[in-house]
Amino acid sequence: MGRLVEGVWKDEWYDTKKSGGNFVRSTSGFRNWITADGAAGPSGEGGFKAESGRYHLYVSLACPWAHRTLIFRALKGLEEHVSISVVHPDMLDNGWEFRNDFAGTTGDSLLGKEYLWQVYTHVDPEMSGRVTVPVLYDTQRDTIVSNESSEIIRMFNSAFDGITGNRDDYWPEPLRDEIEAVNARVYDTVNNGVYKAGFATSQEAYDAAVHPLFESLDWLEDRLSRQRYLLGGQITEADWRLFTTLVRFDEVYHTHFKCNRNFLREMPNLWAYARELYQVPGVAATCVPAHYIRHYHYSHETVNPHRIIPLNPVLDWTAPHGREALQAA
Ligand SMILES: N[C@@H](CCC(=O)N[C@@H](CS)C(=O)NCC(=O)O)C(=O)O
């Protein structure tokens, strides 16, 4: 774990002393957009036209943010158009590594680097900042398009539709305001909430994260008792953004991050809803518990100093979900 300072890798853990024991996630640095015609997107510069075989995605199968991009790649039929490299689940002194000794890893199949930070310095030798996954890479311009998952999923949602013919829309125009509102609460209290609880280094910081987390899970449990998906009868990006936290909840966040008022499997609507999303064709293959169980317990030395990997229950994600009855809602 560390960061780049003017192109040099520094091994250091998140400094929570400056922030009263609170974990503060940094913002992503590369914010360009792939678009159908190469025009500039909402941020960054233009010149990134959707083309088959041009882009490469660096991911960790452990990371919930990278997981979103893999789900959209699968749902939108992009597997044959956007290639991937999968890092090793252990994130240690050198950050994310391309070691190949764990099932499901690929090495860096594009640039042949040893560490992910070298992909960043390949693009910007003077770069300062955190080295995170996912990274969407342009093989033509030899640069990083984006390392912000919330924007990568929106590119994948529509930019390649002319190439794939897949017009499934997870960010439909009429629902955008409501999606943004749900995303904002889910991001702050759930997706990032589990990290704020887990990385807290003061009781106050932990309390300030764990209560809002379970208040939001109660709110979601109630909402999903009346409607099939977060926005009603159709799956949107809001569901996928929530899903990647839910799928890790019982095996990682409950115990390792001390988010232990309840297990997901004790909240019947949320648990059935999460199973339904898991059973959407293409999604199960993106869920690799071996990577997330190993990554969190082994990499976070400050949270789990002896690196013992706990014995986890085996959850049946393929059990019938029975959510069809809510479709009319
Ligand atoms: N805003 C980024 C966050 C990505 C992120 O924080 N990824 C984590 C892995 S789960 C990471 O690579 N952390 C390395 C670090 O912070 O040094 C996104 O959503 O794309």
TrEMBL record:
Binding site for glutathione: 96, 130-133, 148-149
Domain GST C-terminal: residue ranges: 172-296
Alphabetical list of Pfam families matching this protein: GST_C_2, GST_N_2
Matches recorded under InterPro entries: Glutathione-S-Trfase_C-like (IPR010987), Glutathione-S-Trfase_C_sf (IPR036282), Glutathione_S-Trfase (IPR040079), Glutathione_S-Trfase_N (IPR004045), GST_Omega-like_C (IPR047047), GST_Omega/GSH (IPR016639), Thioredoxin-like_sf (IPR036249)
Organism field: Vannielia litorea
Record's GO cellular component terms: cytoplasm
Positions of the record's site feature: Lowers pKa of active site Cys: 253, 296
Sorted UniProt keywords: Transferase
Gene Ontology MF terms in the entry: glutathione transferase activity
Active site: 63 (nucleophile), 195 (proton donor/acceptor)
PANTHER family xref list: GLUTATHIONE S-TRANSFERASE OMEGA-LIKE 1-RELATED (PTHR32419:SF6), GLUTATHIONYL-HYDROQUINONE REDUCTASE (PTHR32419)
Record-given protein name: Putative glutathione S-transferase
